[in-house]
Every structure is written in structure tokens, then in C-alpha cells.
Amino acid sequence: MAEITAEAAPAAEAARTDLRIVVLASAAGTAFEWYDFFVFGSLLTIISRNFFAELGPTAGQIAALALFGVGFAFRPLGALIFGRVGDLLGRKAAFLICVSMMGGATFAIGLLPAYQQIGVAAPILLIFLRVLQGTALGGQYGGAAVYVAEHAPEGRRGYLTSFVQCSAAFGLTTALAVIFITRRWMGENAFAAPDWLGGWRIPFFVSAGLVAISIWMRSKLAESPAFRRMKDAGQHAKAPFREAFGHWPNLKLVLIAFFGLMSAQGAYWYTVFFYSDVFMEKFLKVEGDAANLLIMAAAVVSAPLYVFFGWLSDKVGRKPVMWIGMTLGAVTLFPGFVLMSSAANPALQAALARTPVVVTADPADCTLQFDVTGKTRFLSSCDIAKAALANAGVGYSNRIGPAGQPAVVRIGDVSVVSVDGRALSGPALKTAAGAVTRSIAAALARAGYPARSDPARRDLWTVLAVLIVFTIAATALYGPMAAALTELFPAKVRYTALSLPYHLGTGWIGGFQPVVSFSIVVATGNLYAGLWYPVVFTAVSVVACLLFLPETRGRSLEA
Question: How far apart are CA 421 and CA 378, in angstroms?
Fold first, then answer.
């Protein structure tokens, strides 16, 4: 049997396909796919109004956040499907299929009628397209990371694969830029309109051109040299699933990757770049374009940091750089969000301290407002009261009330009695719930609670500084990750074994982070309670990485 050794082989083989072209095509294609995915996440508030209009603002927001998570939930399936394709047929074939599938699904979202036009069929079609998006993205990352790593010389592997990592920043920045420009050009009302002329559709249509460029660039690439030599020698995987997950040494590496890296990556990264946007818009009442600009600025700052930390991992090792990043993230989330709140809406923080809000309700009347289908209506008196407060961005404390009695919201010296909407429907339900919401809003205004963040009083530079600290932690964790994951697994099952833990972490832990954190806030009334979700998952990785993750810098990819 032919022997596969030569450590210098990747660099020699790369001469057939210029290394710069390999990195550029892989990173650009990944950026375009991230663009497709991030457009949806950045338009969640508008999607909630246009596709879940019947649920009301808070339940609609939860449904849209849950649908954001649904796309991520299918990423592990895509990882398995396309990981198998990549280990059997080659890296190039797998990610060409992925990018075509992602682009088609994204373009189709821009063509969807809204709920106001076709009713319940609109969210059903949207869910289907999100499933396609998530499945496609599940096969993308592993292919790009493995392809670049298998071309890269050993001493530059962290640096070169970091360009795949920073492609997420370019995708997010491009998505936010297209949304921001379209929003300013059309005006908010025209941009958010549910009809066929709604400007929110334009960013989805832009993806068609980006995907065409990506397909053209990737079609010019040759197959990975490591895979080509394995296949020529008859050493490529014949049964990737069994070899990756049915063989304990490989399965152990999958578990180490998941608990030691991906738990933190999924929870922390999506808190920084998605939940912070939701938090600013929904709870701090910062207008959408200002929040988008802040996240976009953080994403721009992140791009060179991914490359820096990838380069640093070539010098000092992957493990210490990533461990410091996740540890910094875990210890700064709570104080960072508190500081961000004080800077973005000081009037709200002053009102919360001066006139606390108390909800007195029967605990049996209150539910955790979490639903991944978007069909559940939360209509108890407690749910209606808490939804109104969450929509106003107001924190509150909870008191146990008498069994069977309606919830009461106390704001200063004003008490608002909520209504049980479960026995109502149609106009009667809308009128009753609306009356409660208006009464709460009036009491909040009387107590000095602001309806929006005041541009004259807020300090967005401090908000940006907090986001940059978060970004440093996120990039230190993510920058070296492609190299570390690629080096962790044997070549013959690398695509499959790498992709599954990556997409379980980013797909299930990360994808559902915004909706779980938002639901925790609505249930508890504590604006910061949702941060326990990323802190706990990140802490798991801090411990597992320190104890179980091996250092992989300097490993041969063909041993």
C-alpha cells in the first residue's frame, strides 16, 4: 500500500493551485454563505412583523428568533450529509453543492409573500427555506476549513485558515451594510412594508450575484492535495460515519471538540454578534440602524483580529489563545451588558432604579414563552402582562399571587390588572390585550420610563468599546479554531468528524441562544438573566479545554 507521509507535500502540491487563490476562493465563498445566513438574523424584527403578525410583537419576536434557531438546528444534518460527500467524493464537490443550495434558498426568501398576503402559508414556506439554508451551511464550513488547511504549510496553518474564520465578519458586515444602505435609501416604512415592494427583500436578492461569483471562483479550484493522495492510495474513508463515530479514538476527539471548543464558540459568538443587537433594539430601545451600525463596526474590527490570533496560534499554540479568549468572554459578559445598558439608555436605567415594576401573579398562570413553531399563543393574564413589559423593554420583579387571580402589574402607585385571553378570540382578544398593553404603557410613561433611547443622552462610544472587548474574546476563540479542528482529526474522516461537533455547537447551542435568552428575560423580568445561557456553556468549555483538549500545533495532517 502506498505510504502517505511527506510533511512538505501540501506546500509543493499547492503550486498546482496558487495558495492565494485557494484562500481567497474559500474565504470569499464562506463569506457569501454567511451573508445569506446573516441577512435573515439581522432582519428578525421585520420578519417577526411580516411573517408572524397574528402573534403580537413579543410572541412574534420570539417566533422569529426561534425560526432563526431552526436554520441552525439543521446544520448538523448538513454536516453529516456533506461531510460524507466530502470524505467520499472530495472537498470541492461538497462545498460547490452547498453554496448553490444556500444561494437558491436565500433568493427564494426574498420572493415569499408575507402573512398579510397569504396567511399561515407564509411562515410555513419560510420555515422550509430556513431548513434548506441551515442544511447547506452545515456542509460549508468544514469543507472550507479542511480545504485551506490541507493546502497550507504547517508553520502557517493557523494564519491561513484564519481567513476562513474572518469570512464570517465579512459576511456579517456586508449583510449589515446592504441592509443599512437600503434602509436609509427607502425609509423605514417602505423598507419594512410587507408587500412586494418592501425594501427588506432587496438584501435577499443581492445574494444571487454573490453566490454566482462564489460558484465561479470555486469551480476553478483543484481538489485538495491531501484528499487526492489518499484517494490515489486507496486510503480514503469507505464508511465515514462508522469510522468517525463508531471508533472510540475518533469519537473521543469529537466529544472533546464539542465540549472543549464548540460549546463556548456557539454560545458566546452568537451572543456578541446577534443577541447584543436584539438586546439593544428590544430592551434598550436603540433604533435599528444605530444598533446595526454598532454591530457592523464590531464586525469590521473583528476581521483583522481573526487573522492576528490565527497567526499568534502558529507561534504560541492553538490551545492557550483559544482558552484565554473563552475565559475573557465568560468573565466580561455580565459587567459588559450592564455597562452597555447604562450607556445606551441611561433614562431607562434611572427609571428602573427609581420606580421598580412588580408583577404579582399565580405561578401556574405564567409560562416560559418559548416556541420553535411560531404557532403557540401565550394568552394567560400573566403572559399578556409580561409580554407587554418585555415589548416595552422593562425589567421587573415577580411576586406570588393568589391562585386563580389575574396578574397585576404595579408601577409606582399605579396597579394594572391584566386579563385572561384564553377564553377570548378575534376582535375581543385584541381589544382586551390591547387595553392592558396601553394601560401599562401609560403607567410606565407616567413613571418616567422612556419609549426609546434618547440620542442626546446616550453614549454609543462606550457601547462600542464594550462590543470591542467582547469581539477580542470572540476572535481569540474563533481565529485559531479552523486550524485546531483540522489538526485534531485524522485525514480520512476529517470532513465528517470536524463538521458535526462544529455545527452542533454553532447550530444548536449558538442558533437557539437568542430565543432562549430572550425567553428567559421575558419569564424572569431580569434583563440580564438570559446571559446565564452563554456564560454556563462557555464555562463548560473553559474547564473541558483546559483539562482535555490537546495542543495540535505542529501536527502533520497526513500522519
Answer: 9
Residue 302 grid coordinates: 473583528
- Measure CA of the first residue to CA of the last residue in the chain; give whole Å: 15
Residue 360, beta-bridge partner list: 399, 408
Q: What is the pLDDT along the chain (559 residues), one digit of tens a residue?
A: 334 344 444 444 444 457 777 787 777 777 876 786 678 777 877 888 888 777 766 667 667 777 777 777 787 887 777 777 766 666 666 767 877 887 788 888 888 888 888 887 888 888 888 888 888 877 777 777 777 887 788 888 899 988 888 887 888 888 888 888 998 888 888 888 888 888 889 988 888 787 777 777 766 666 556 556 655 555 555 556 677 677 788 889 989 999 999 999 999 998 998 899 889 988 899 987 888 889 889 988 999 999 999 999 999 999 999 999 999 999 999 999 999 999 999 999 999 999 999 999 999 888 877 665 556 677 899 989 988 888 788 889 999 999 889 999 999 899 999 999 888 887 888 888 889 999 999 999 999 999 889 999 999 999 999 999 999 999 999 999 989 998 998 877 777 778 788 878 877 888 788 878 888 888 888 999 999 999 999 999 999 999 999 999 988 776 5
Is the pTM higher than 0.85? The answer reads: no
The CA distance from 238 to 240, in Å, is 6
User: Any idea which fold 349-446 has?
Assistant: Glutaredoxin (3.40.30)
- Provide the CATH number for the domain formed by 15-344+456-548 in this structure: 1.20.1250.20
Domain boundaries, the chain: 15-344+456-548, 349-446
E strand or H helix at 358, and its extent?
A: strand 357-361
